[in-house]
Amino acid sequence: MSEIKIIRDPIYADIPLNGSELSLIDTPEFQRLRNIKQTGLTCMVYPSANHTRFEHSIGTMHVAGEISKNLEDVDRELIRIAALLHDIGHPPFSHTLEICGYNHEYITRKKIKKMDFESYTPNEVIDVLQSKGFEGALLSGDVDADRMDYLLRDSYHTGVAYGSIDYARLIRCMVLLDDIRPKLGVLGKGLIAVESLLIARYQMYPTVYMHPTSRIAEIMLKNATIYGLNEKLFNLNDLSTMDDIDLVATLRRSSDEECNKLIKMLDKRHLFKNILTFRYDDLTPEEKWLLINLNEEDVKQLEMELSEKLGTTVFLDIPDYPKINEHNVTVIIDNKRYKLDEISPLAKNLKWAYMKSWDVRVYIPPEHYKLLKNENKFKENNKKEVIFDCIRKKHKKSMMLDIMQNEGVIKGRGRLLTIAKEMGMSESEFLSELQKLIFCGLIKENVVKVRGTYRYDYAINL
What we know:
One of its GO terms (biological process) is dGTP catabolic process. Residues 53-151 form the HD domain. With 462 residues, the protein is α+β, with helices and mostly antiparallel strands. The chain folds into three domains: 5-208, Orthogonal Bundle (Hypothetical protein af1432), CATH 1.10.3210.10; 212-322 and 356-394, Growth Hormone, Chain: A; 399-460, Arc Repressor Mutant, subunit A (Orthogonal Bundle). It contains 22 helices and twelve strands. It has helices spanning 19-25, 28-31, 53-68, 76-85, 104-113, 122-129, 134-137, 145-158, 167-172, 191-209, 212-230, 244-252, 257-267, 285-292, 296-310, 340-343, 345-355, 369-373, 383-391, 399-407, 413-422, 427-440; strands at residues 5-9, 13-17, 174-177, 183-187, 273-279, 315-317, 330-333, 336-339, 359-364, 409-411, 443-450, 453-460. β11 (443-450) and β12 (453-460) form a beta hairpin. The longest helix has 19 residues, at 191-209. The termini are far apart. The relative contact order is 0.09.
């Protein structure tokens, strides 16, 4: 039997590791994570938020192993190894620099394919990370080990009073559901524990993950990195081997004036200013649809047009819309299955509260802030024109919206999926577009109780 060693962790106390796990931790691919911050530039706001992907990955491994203890027919060691390696493809500063097509999940798979394992093939580990089989449901599901660890860990290291979840009860109440695609469910007695996770996620979103100051800093770093790529200081693939220290040191050597300026400003915490904010309720459904469908190239083009229009550098901050996967978790009560939103009024209300915390921001250099802020173009009556005059021509059509306009009302998600497939959409495209349309308010989803069960009906909401 492999020798067991103990790692001391501030969240879980003792985390046991066997020899094969330790050998993976000692690889260069994993050790790189010691210098990649878990929460990007959140440390600009919360000075103690210097924790890294290294300890998060070990924590995720521990949580996944604890969940698997209560489940039958799963390979616990395979789950732990996949959880340990799930983030080795992250670029410096984590999600902040998933830019220009960089995909940390793809890079993770590439790295795993080159690694040696004592008892498994690389493809077996990759299959878990791609949610193939029961094991994958623990790492990429509606409520998973990754999410539990980062909420607990990020809360601890930022020092905020949010992020607390009833972790021990939640994992005791988890069960595997043998559906077409295996997934985790929660027993009814764990309902309040799931709700605690939703509350934690909702509170952490505006106070930590989308804090206004860290958002500005991260947009500045992202643009400095893009300047560095354009200058050929490094290429996109180099981000898979660099850590935070490598990247910042490289950008400081840039001869590009804009790149150099941004890094010096970050070094001094001399940040851009937010001159415009478009909150969820400030925008029409059509305007939200326009914004969330802009790709990176669209955003850069729009920034150039706005910069020319305003006479200064302009950066746009358009976050991904909240996907809120936790609300899809299945809860088992009296041997019947329910979606969380169907039986939890708290979850249903939090879903919309979470969505409405989303906003879009426009940043300019601090030296131009006061001058432009006082100009008429930023008055309440016409501030939308500043951005939407440049954006309306980028309208993206929606096949599903066309379906809904023809049908008016569709009873049952299955029927809507069938029609979408007949129009050529895959199931993944269907789910993604439906989620976007509901978020924007272009389609309204109603949960209807029918003979002891629930049905999802959809109506056009224009």
